[in-house]
């Protein structure tokens, strides 16, 4: 049964509005937004972190993601949708211990976990502890292999009632048809559905559904408020403005929405990084309205040339422009940048070149990412259901990088052909430790720098090399003993 607007409004004290009146009020509201000034937003967040258990707490300092030791932390890994409900489908194949161990051995240190509002709150006001236990089990599995988790309340095409993900099926605008257009793929059926777009418009223009959304987030946050293995809460996946003009949507609706959400979630859990995403609307930039909040991270999704046209032809220019745009928006917010999704169907031509160019750019800008995705029944995953991993594709994605660095991390680069990682740090305390992710598939490493000494060698299954700095400023070079084989292509 659908929980219609009148019932939601009555519960939230917003009054009863019929659908036509809602749409009329929406039009008038959007018109007024064009002319009103948009001052900066600020949210007071006061962390109260208990001692970390296992993985150190992450926070933001000096415009960087850092750990409790003050080391700059770069998070790289995968999305895994084992907890995501899409339409009426059952949950996908769970992440296995074998999967997590493989990620660890290849040097990755984060898993972005899309979670479902529909599973969390299957009936109005009733939250599923059984589902929370499933999410907790996945977080614990990841943590046991040195992998942080980013919890993403995932939304696509508003909700499961329309075949998408996100809102429960009991939430919809009454009287708006869910039209199916002949000849269109299922995804475009949802994108163009009047029912989907009416629900999205109502969600963004009126606060009563937003309060329900943040109430669900509070339940999720309550479960993990003391868990340092959860790196961050990704507050809303891929907001898009249709049918509201993009700049108005961002400045008048999206950023106040995030500010209200951070305040609400922080009442329950002020301890985790809060990730806010820019809009995914073709390749258009997001209009930024400054938002000041402690431990804030900005994210965009990098799909230029893979999901967003034009198709990649070997020219990394559009990829560089897309990342530069995200970095510029992060600086305007201000917040450090992290790409919550980046990926390509590895069956297409030049997929390996696209992936290597994206990783080269992330090294150049010292950014982290979560690849879309680990498990997918199509060509976007490293594994397919219960199948074994595509090691040829995983080797393309598995490159050494500096995972945690004291002082200031100035530069990082990896030469794929030579199997050589170089990085430079400055102002680090003598004797402090630096961690390098070193994939098992690259083989053992040898140290070519005299300003550091090796503390731990690459252990089978660890994907990690620990170094101790002997000088405050250091140029670090690690070289694979055997050069990599011929570059793989897909």
What are its keywords?
single chain; 490 residues; alpha/beta; TIM Barrel; Immunoglobulin-like; nine-stranded parallel sheet; five-stranded antiparallel sheet; 21% strand; globular; disordered N terminus
Silhouette: globular
Structural class: alpha/beta
SS summary, helix count:
12
Strand order of the largest sheet: 11-9-8-7-6-5-14-13-12
The end-to-end span amounts to: 46 Å
Regions with little confidence, pLDDT below 50 for 5+ residues: 1-28, 30-35
The CATH class of the largest domain is identified as: Alpha Beta
Description of the molecule:
With 490 residues, the protein is of the alpha/beta class. The chain has two domains: 394 residues, Alpha-Beta Barrel (TIM Barrel), CATH 3.20.20; 92 residues, Golgi alpha-mannosidase II (Immunoglobulin-like, Sandwich). Helix content is 31%, strand content 21%. Helix 2 crosses helix 7. The protein is globular, with a radius of gyration of 23 Å. The N terminus is likely disordered.
Question: Helices and strands in order, then pairings?
Answer:
Blueprint: H1 5-12, H2 19-33, E1 41-43, E2 58-61, E3 64-67, E4 72-73, E5 76-79, H3 97-105, E6 110-115, H4 117-120, H5 129-144, E7 148-153, H6 186-192, H7 194-205, H8 207-224, E8 230-234, H9 246-268, E9 273-277, E10 291-293, E11 296-299, E12 301-302, H10 317-332, E13 338-342, H11 351-365, E14 368-371, H12 391-397, E15 401-405, E16 408-415, E17 420-426, E18 433-437, E19 445-447, E20 452-456, E21 464-469, E22 474-480
Parallel strand pairs: 1-10, 5-6, 5-14, 6-7, 7-8, 8-9, 9-11, 12-13, 13-14
Antiparallel strand pairs: 2-3, 4-15, 15-18, 16-17, 17-22, 18-21, 19-22, 20-21
Helix pairs in contact: 2-7, 7-8, 8-9
């Amino acid at each position: 049964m659908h929980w219609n607007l009148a019932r939601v409004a009555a519960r939230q004290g917003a009054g009863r509005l019929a659908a036509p009146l809602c749409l009329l009020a929406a039009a008038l509201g959007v018109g007024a937004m064009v002319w009103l000034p948009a001052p900066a937003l600020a949210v007071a967040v006061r962390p109260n972190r208990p001692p970390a258990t296992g993985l150190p707490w992450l926070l933001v300092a000096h415009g960087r993601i850092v750990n409790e030791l003050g080391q700059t932390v770069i998070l790289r890994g995968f999305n895994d949708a084992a907890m995501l409900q899409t339409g009426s489908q059952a949950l996908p194949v769970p992440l296995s211990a074998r999967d997590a161990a493989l990620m660890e051995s290849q040097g990755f240190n984060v898993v972005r976990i899309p979670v479902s509002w529909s599973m969390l709150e299957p009936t109005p006001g009733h939250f599923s502890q059984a589902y929370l236990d499933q999410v907790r089990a996945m977080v614990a599995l990841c943590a046991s292999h040195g992998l942080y988790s980013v919890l993403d309340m995932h939304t696509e095409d508003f909700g499961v009632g329309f075949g998408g993900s996100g809102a429960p099926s009991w939430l919809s605008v009454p009287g708006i048809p869910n039209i199916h257009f002949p000849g269109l793929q299922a995804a475009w059926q949802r994108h163009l559905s009047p029912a989907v777009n009416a629900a999205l418009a109502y969600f963004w223009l009126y606060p009563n559904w937003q309060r329900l959304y943040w109430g669900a987030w509070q339940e999720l946050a309550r479960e993990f408020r003391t868990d340092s293995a959860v790196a961050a809460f990704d507050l809303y996946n891929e907001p898009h403005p249709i049918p509201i003009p993009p700049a108005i949507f961002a400045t008048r609706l999206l950023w106040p929405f995030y500010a209200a959400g951070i305040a609400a979630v922080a009442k329950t859990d002020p301890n985790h990084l809060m990730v806010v995403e820019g809009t995914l609307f073709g390749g258009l930039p997001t209009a930024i309205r400054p938002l000041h909040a402690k431990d804030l991270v900005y994210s965009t999704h990098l799909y230029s040339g893979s999901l967003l046209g034009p198709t990649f032809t070997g020219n990394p220019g559009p990829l560089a422009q897309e990342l530069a745009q995200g970095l510029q928006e992060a600086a305007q917010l201000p917040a450090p940048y992290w790409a919550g999704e980046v990926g390509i169907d590895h069956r297409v031509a030049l997929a390996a070149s696209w992936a290597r160019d994206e990783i080269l750019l992330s090294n150049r800008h010292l950014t982290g990412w979560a690849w879309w995705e680990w498990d997918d029944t199509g060509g976007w995953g490293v594994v397919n259901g219960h199948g074994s991993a595509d090691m040829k594709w995983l080797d393309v994605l598995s490159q050494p990088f500096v995972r945690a660095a004291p002082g200031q991390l100035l530069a990082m680069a990896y030469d794929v052909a030579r199997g050589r990682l170089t990085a430079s740090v400055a102002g680090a305390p003598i004797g402090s430790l630096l961690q390098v992710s070193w994939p098992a598939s690259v083989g053992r490493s040898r140290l070519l720098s005299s300003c550091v000494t090796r503390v731990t060698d690459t252990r089978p299954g660890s994907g990690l090399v620990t170094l101790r700095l002997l000088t405050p400023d250091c140029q670090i070079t690690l070289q694979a003993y055997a050069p990599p084989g011929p570059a793989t292509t897909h």
